[in-house]
Amino acid sequence: MTAEQTGSGPSAATGEPLVVLDGVQKWYGDLHVLQDINLTVHRGEVVVVIGPSGSGKSTLCRAINRLETIDEGTISLDGQPLPAEGKALASLRAEVGMVFQSFNLFAHKTILENVTLGPIKVRGVKKAEADQHAMELLERVGVAHQAEKYPAQLSGGQQQRVAIARALAMEPKVMLFDEPTSALDPEMIKEVLDVMVDLAKRGMTMVVVTHEMGFARTAADRVVFMSDGAIVEENTPEEFFTNPSSERAQDFLSKILKH
Ligand SMILES: Nc1ncnc2c1ncn2[C@@H]1O[C@H](COP(=O)(O)OP(=O)(O)OP(=O)(O)O)[C@@H](O)[C@H]1O
Ligand SMILES: [Mg+2]
Fold it and tell me: Where does the UniProt annotation locate this protein (predicted)?
């Protein structure tokens, strides 16, 4: 089932803090890639992160998922600070779903197996139960009829919807999306965004790096604009796109609106 982009507006973000970044700093050598990042994402909230190439958006996502370490500050998920390593990290990582630009599906596993692998291996779910849940998710993202195929037999848009189903199968508390549609042909972008809008409407907490303004306006509660490793501006989508307050955001928007 996919949702229409009706422009009905974001759901009210009334939940308690779920992801909290407090004074996060990170350097790559001399490059100060995350500069004193303070960001709270509430349960049920959809935050769109936007900004020029190299501004640190992917690094921010990867830090939240602990794929990257940070040098200073803290990141906590549902009240728990991110553990540095070990079993606690693995279980916490399972609570964060991540969808990247490239689909990263396992080429030699079927679509169904791609979705059930995590629940069976990491969560210890029984195969029959994992299969049933996976089929429900594949149904939801509109690719259930492809369950027995292999990733290469699917279009990019279909593969990305499978990647979303695979992340959801772990029942994450928050979903991170890093430019999930930027590698797709234009006609496939909408089918993926529809799935994401549907997810947002169902109350999923989401951090989405994207330049898709239609999605931001439809689904985001808040837009965070990053530049040179810092959060320069935070605003409602409406306000951000029509009346950005910082010069850097104005400059960035004038560029992406032109093409
Ligand atoms: N492993 C790394 N080692 C050194 N520098 C890195 C590494 N990863 C990223 N960087 C640098 O950190 C900066 C931020 O990169 P990041 O990928 O977070 O940007 P981004 O905002 O996601 O950009 P894009 O829109 O192009 O995806 C860039 O200058 C990049 O070159
Ligand atoms: Mg990036």
Answer: Cell membrane
CATH topology of domain 17-103+173-257: Rossmann fold (3.40.50)
**What's the mean pLDDT when you consider all of the chain?**
91
Among the bound ligands, the one closest to the CA of 256? 1
Query: What is the per-residue pLDDT across 106-127, written as a single tens digit (0 to 9) for each?
Result: 999 999 999 999 999 988 999 9
- Indicate which atom in ligand 1 lies nearest the CA of residue 52: 25
**CA end-to-end span of the chain:** 32
- Bigger pLDDT: 228 vs 80: 228
Report pTM. Answer: 0.92
Pocket of ligand 1, beta carbon within 6 A: 28, 31, 33, 51, 53-59
Q: Ligand 1 pocket test: which of 26, 49, 50, 59 has the largest number of ligand atoms within 8 Å of its C-beta?
A: 59
